[in-house]
């Protein structure tokens, strides 16, 4: 149609009637002439009054305006010289359009909307701006990032992306990975693998350069690690996680503990805490993240993901669980010393002291876990329902998703303690204790397995992370139940599949108070 602009070229190139290469923020023509580049022009203009010649040579009328919705041609807006953080959608009379204030406009008019990346005016032109816009759009419209993935720290990243190429590539990888996952597209069938390689190269350059000890680099490692859960489809304890844990540990030493109110840094450490716990256990070193300012920041972040009504009851079990994982490397070292020469006098006395310590720890964990579960049931956040498809005949339903992860992680600490008690009793051949401790260990394992169906109903990427606490209960399964556990665990490897979705689980009553395990 005559008079309709066909290009987003800058105003200077259009005035000279030459092709603009659109290399924003400054095109090559304006750069050579050392003049100010107007940037990309809009394909749609609002022209008010006078002939078109009156506007020739002036600045293009911006598309972003501040105007109330109108439903008639007489109320058409005038062009404003000052851009604002708003944009318009032109509608016609062919179909009604619902605006943001829930009013329908069926005649020709203008409907105001707000661009997702409008933070300081203008539109994104650089790769960093576009990536920040895409991530911000995900944060604003994907509620699962907070309620399921527990990634509250994402809202602090868009403003940092333009200043860090490493974070830009990692965020681009994360956005593409999440989009492919939602669409059930294999990474090999898209450009995600190319972005994965680019993110790794950018991360390598950042670690070798002057950005190695920055919060942006730590955020890049965290996003790449999260994306690998979908790209590689592997288990949480595979080598790549330990490589990332080494990097996070090194960066954390350089940055120091989080300051009060630093939600970004605390959120990143909380995201990596699980991998760091496995890393400390493998290395046999003390997990300092559960102590001092580190532990306080992580505890506050963990509690912020839980419902307000149960937060006061979650503090004690969180403290005990954190203390358990902090002391696990030391306890494992004592167990290795006992097993090396079990019948010496020193080893026997050490074993008796350790069994008393483990017995007291299990009693505390049991009391606090039961109190939290009962409170969650009273608040209708946790429900136990009959489940004919489960070999344990019942399963837990919970909301939000982090509540199930939290309870499952606390149960895994109880499983580890109960297993240590049982192994020590077998080592010193105490028949009464062996039978009692095995029954106690089995009951805790059964409680753990009741969380699996709900975990499989959640995002597969979340199920990956939840399988690690379940692994410690695998030895407590009989031949029949072990087959069921393995089927559940194998199901989480099929990302994007509708796993374990069954009807009839929306109601039920709490049975926690009847279980003494």
TrEMBL record:
This is Zn(2)-C6 fungal-type domain-containing protein. GO terms for molecular function: DNA-binding transcription factor activity, RNA polymerase II-specific; zinc ion binding. Residues 9-38 form the Zn(2)-C6 fungal-type domain. InterPro entries: Osmoadaptation_assoc (IPR053178), Zn2-C6_fun-type_DNA-bd_sf (IPR036864), Zn2Cys6_DnaBD (IPR001138). SUPFAM superfamilies: Zn2/Cys6 DNA-binding domain (SSF57701). SMART domains: GAL4. Gene3D superfamilies: Zn(2)-C6 fungal-type DNA-binding domain. Residues 50-82 are annotated as: Disordered. Residues 69-82 have a biased composition (Low complexity). Keywords: Nucleus.
